[in-house]
């Protein structure tokens, strides 16, 4: 419970005690009790006092007319405003303390509906003629912990900016149905919001579970693929080594097959006819020896002995002895 509300309830308790402990109280006693309760500097809630049988007895038709207005006055202090007092006839006059109290309570009600409040609107609602008087009232409300506000007299127009209001007004019985309807609508909206939040949470959980399942499936597939690769590599290792050794042996000492071929003229029974069919004047080979390398590439092409631009394998030729 708010501290200001607690203090106000404690300040009201002596008046509630007087109203409940007095048997067959006269209307004059009850009217004086109402005047004292509304004039007390710390009483801002009056609902508990209103509910006592002694106060409600003023509604009787036997109550003199001069005291009947006190019950209505107490109701205005409980949930009404200064404007309600001004608009209601046959109410008892207010003393200075009651005037200050009702204006403070009216300021609480205005602060919950309008913000910021202009000086002009507040002065009209509270029947205040001077801005200094209004500023004094707002300052008193701030120091009494009724509101938290800031005065802005230099703005155009001057305003009172209220940031918080103490829960010190009683609830009018006629407004209970409206409050119940408002709270019911608020409860429905809260239920809709909670349903949307729960649906979103369920959707997030489902998506997270789906992602985890996909990640697990990818992990299993990767491990299976890696295991198959390792098995295939182990089984094919021996054959690959043999195949590599066979390739190395074919190419001769270097293990590579090139474009050069080596021949020995003594290995053939017949002359290959090169010397008999050599071009005329081609004597440069006689002193070279029985074996020599002849590149049948571009060199022969320049000499007119091969096709231009073609490359042939190099052969080792020799003349039979």
From TrEMBL:
Keyword tags: Signalosome
Span list, region Disordered: 232-259, 300-321
One Gene Ontology cellular component: COP9 signalosome
PROSITE patterns reported in the protein's UniProt record: PCI (PS50250)
InterPro entries: COPS7/eIF3m, PCI_dom
Signal sequence residues: none
Source taxon at top rank: Eukaryota
Ranges where the PCI domain occurs: 4-165
Pfam families: CSN7_HB_subdom, PCI
Sequence similarity: Belongs to the CSN7/EIF3M family. CSN7 subfamily.
Protein name: PCI domain-containing protein
């Amino acid at each position: 419970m708010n501290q200001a509300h607690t203090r106000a309830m404690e300040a009201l308790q002596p008046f509630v005690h007087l109203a409940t402990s007095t048997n067959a109280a006269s209307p004059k006693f009850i009217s004086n009790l109402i005047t004292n309760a509304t004039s007390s500097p710390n009483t801002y809630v009056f609902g508990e006092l209103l509910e006592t049988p002694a106060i409600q007895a003023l509604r009787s038709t036997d109550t003199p007319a001069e005291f009947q207005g006190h019950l209505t006055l107490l109701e205005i202090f409980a949930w009404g405003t200064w404007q309600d007092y001004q608009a209601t006839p046959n109410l008892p006059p207010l003393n200075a303390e009651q005037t200050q109290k009702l204006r403070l309570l009216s300021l609480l009600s205005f602060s919950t509906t309008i913000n910021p409040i202009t000086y002009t609107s507040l002065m009209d609602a509270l029947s205040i003629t001077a801005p200094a008087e209004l500023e004094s009232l707002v300052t008193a409300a701030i120091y009494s912990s009724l509101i938290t506000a800031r005065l802005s007299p230099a703005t155009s127009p001057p305003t009172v900016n209220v940031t918080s209001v103490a829960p010190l007004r009683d609830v009018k019985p006629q407004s209970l149905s409206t409050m119940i309807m408002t709270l019911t609508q608020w409860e429905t909206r809260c239920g809709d919001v909670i349903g949307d939040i729960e649906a979103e949470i369920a959707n997030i959980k489902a998506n997270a579970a789906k992602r985890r399942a996909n990640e697990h499936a990818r992990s299993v597939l990767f491990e299976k693929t890696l295991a198959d690769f390792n098995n295939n590599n182990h089984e094919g290792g021996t054959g690959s080594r043999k195949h590599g050794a066979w390739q190395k042996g074919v190419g001769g000492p270097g293990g590579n097959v090139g474009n050069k071929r080596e021949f020995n003229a003594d290995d053939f029974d017949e002359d290959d006819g090169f010397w008999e069919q050599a071009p005329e004047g081609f004597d440069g080979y006689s002193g070279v020896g029985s074996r020599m390398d002849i590149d049948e590439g571009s060199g022969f092409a320049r000499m007119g002995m091969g096709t231009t631009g073609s490359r042939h394998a190099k052969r080792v030729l020799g003349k039979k002895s």
